[in-house]
Design brief:
With about 100 residues, the chain is an alpha+beta fold. It has one domain. The protein is about 45% helix and about 10% strand. The protein contains 3 helices and 3 strands. A 3-stranded mixed β-sheet has the order 1-2-3, covered by helices on one side. α3 links the parallel β2 and β3. The longest helix has 28 residues. It is elongated, with a radius of gyration of 19 Å. The N and C termini lie far apart (about 70 Å).
Length: about 100
């Protein structure tokens, strides 16, 4: 029985596909971790845009709003969450007493 032979092109293509899938899995995990964060509130009602179909298969869900409690310097959190949830509106909560 002859040994299967793979060309360098096939190996590079498979490596690129696996790397892309690993990247998408890490994005889904980061988004899920952000959804269970301590000072972020995520609202999933009628999102404006969906997520990538591959990420939807991996369990990701589109988000419409992300609200942040304004604790200390929350601008870095706002930027991080806006990058993680490009389809959502990221806003600070105006009246914090409603959540205490």
């Amino acid at each position: 029985m002859p040994r299967p032979r793979f060309t360098l092109r096939v190996i590079l293509a498979v490596t690129a596909i696996v790397a892309y899938l690993a990247w998408q899995v890490s994005i889904v995990q980061q988004r899920k971790a952000a959804m269970t964060g301590t000072h972020e509130f995520v609202v999933n009602m009628s999102p404006r845009a969906g997520v990538d179909p591959i990420r939807a298969i991996l369990g990701d869900q589109p988000v419409r709003y992300v609200y942040i409690l304004p604790i200390d310097d929350y601008t870095s959190d706002t930027d991080r969450l806006a990058h993680l949830f490009p389809e959502a509106e990221v806003k600070p909560i105006e009246d914090r007493r409603a959540f205490d």
